[in-house]
From TrEMBL:
Protein's name in the database: Pyridoxal phosphate-dependent aminotransferase family protein
Family named by the database record: Belongs to the class-II pyridoxal-phosphate-dependent aminotransferase family. BioF subfamily.
Pfam families: Aminotran_1_2 (PF00155)
Keyword Cell wall biogenesis/degradation carried by entry: no
Stretches assigned to the Aminotransferase class I/classII large domain: 28-387
UniProt cross-references to PANTHER family, sorted A to Z: 8-AMINO-7-OXONONANOATE SYNTHASE, CLASS II AMINOTRANSFERASE/8-AMINO-7-OXONONANOATE SYNTHASE
SUPFAM superfamilies: PLP-dependent transferases (SSF53383)
Swiss-Prot/TrEMBL GO biological process terms: biotin biosynthetic process
Keywords assigned: Aminotransferase, Pyridoxal phosphate, Transferase
Organism name: Flavobacterium nackdongense
Keyword Transmembrane helix: no
GO-annotated molecular function: pyridoxal phosphate binding; transaminase activity
Cofactor(s) demanded: pyridoxal 5'-phosphate
Length: 397
């Protein structure tokens, strides 16, 4: 059949703007692009222990067989969710098939008509997509700007107060949901969580934090070192919901929403991306469980990642590259190089030298904010970090 002309035109526009996305083939380059921060995706012990766990529990089953509400709620789910809840010091955890499913499920079902969602302007596309499916009003606030956030809250409260005084109809109190990420996926920076929680508590808001790029990277070394930024700061009891994604630091797949038991019960009943999809296979859920257990036993990988982050920041300062980079103490380090063609050219030169560094193009990021996104890992050596930054300095100066 013929392809619709308007869709062809959209593809041609992408090509004209040097912004056409393509699936990359696997390569043997030095990894500075994947989200496998502590190497768990290639961890042989996790692979073997997952298999052994399934054999020991007589779980010889390739698929979940259906949604969790029909036939797919196999016994591995309960053990994994109990373990995750205990690990993250929360009442409950509910596993979703992916971080995308978790965000779409949460934001499309929890905020109600008459409620307000205030989200950081750099929040992930999955959060935005979930918000678009919600019946609540939504506004973005300037990135990590809590004065702008507070202005929006005050305006909403004043408008609500005026509407109630002018109406004889009984209204349930409106809820305000504040949404942020503990590590932003394109910039790698973090919000001031203490200040954000102070604003949230001041106005009785519900704070939601996506910790996709924080799990396995931030944490208390006395516990595991990788439980996430919120827990590292001891603020887990003041956050309404945390979304943990397992495709980054845990090196596997899936996600979980953590909160109180009522939130879990609500999501099971109303989150469509949970209700109307086949569950994860026992092997997938067992991998999540075993990976969590390794977070507590393999602290060396997390420590090595932190050392590499420090070394990267020191090297970029020594080479005079600091002005290019967004300030970050996470495993994501982004150098702003405006222009799709320009940033693609420099990424290509680094790849020719053996380093897998990816260009992030507009419209994924705003025009003029195109960038090289360096993802650091526990398995990158200090020499590799120094060399790739040395090459970058010769290509941009």
């Amino acid at each position: 059949m013929k392809f619709p002309k308007n869709l062809t035109a959209k593809l041609e526009t992408r090509k004209h703007n040097n912004a056409l996305r393509k699936l990359a083939a696997p390569n043997d380059l030095i990894d500075f692009s994947s989200n496998d921060y502590i190497g768990f995706s290639k961890n042989k012990a996790i692979f073997e222990e997952t298999h052994q766990y399934l054999m020991d529990n007589n779980c010889i089953q390739n698929g979940a067989t259906g949604s969790r509400l029909i036939s797919g709620n196999h016994k591995v789910y309960q053990e994994a969710e109990d373990y995750i809840a205990k690990f993250h010091q929360t009442e409950s955890a509910l596993i979703f098939n992916s971080g995308y499913d978790a965000n779409v499920g949460f934001f499309s079902s929890v905020p109600q008509k008459g409620d307000l969602i205030l989200y950081d302007e750099l929040c992930h596309a999955s959060i935005r997509d979930g918000i678009q499916l919600s019946n609540a009003k939504a506004y973005k606030f300037k990135h990590n700007d809590f004065e702008d956030l507070e202005r929006l809250i005050v305006n909403f409260n004043e408008s609500n107060k005026s509407n109630r005084s002018n109406s004889s109809i009984f209204h349930l109190p409106s809820s305000i949901f504040i949404v942020t990420e503990s590590v932003f996926s394109m910039d790698g920076d973090c919000p001031n969580m203490e200040e954000l929680i102070a604003v949230s508590n001041k106005y009785n808001c519900y704070l939601v934090v996506d910790e996709a790029h924080s799990l396995g990277v931030f944490g208390d070394p006395e516990v595991s070192g990788g439980e996430g930024l919120v827990q590292m700061l001891g603020l887990q009891d003041q956050v309404f919901a945390r979304i943990m994604t397992f495709g980054k630091g845990l090196g596997c797949h899936g996600s979980a929403i953590m909160g109180n038991q009522e939130l879990k019960e609500y999501l099971v009943n109303f989150a469509r991306s949970f209700i109307y999809t086949t569950g994860l296979s026992p092997h997938s859920v067992a991998t999540i469980l075993i990976a969590y257990q390794h977070l507590q036993s393999e602290k060396e990988s997390i420590e090595q990642l932190r050392d590499n982050i420090v070394h990267f920041n020191q090297e970029k300062n020594l080479l005079g590259l600091k002005p290019l980079f967004v300030r970050s103490k996470s495993a994501i380090q982004s150098a702003i190089i405006p222009g799709n063609q320009n940033v693609k050219s420099i990424a290509g030169q680094l790849q020719e030298k053996g380093f897998d560094v990816k260009a992030i193009l507009s419209p994924t990021v705003p025009e003029g904010q195109e960038r090289l996104r360096f993802c650091l890992h526990s398995y990158n050596s200090a020499a590799e970090i120094s060399e790739v930054l040395g090459l970058l300095s010769t290509f941009v100066y």
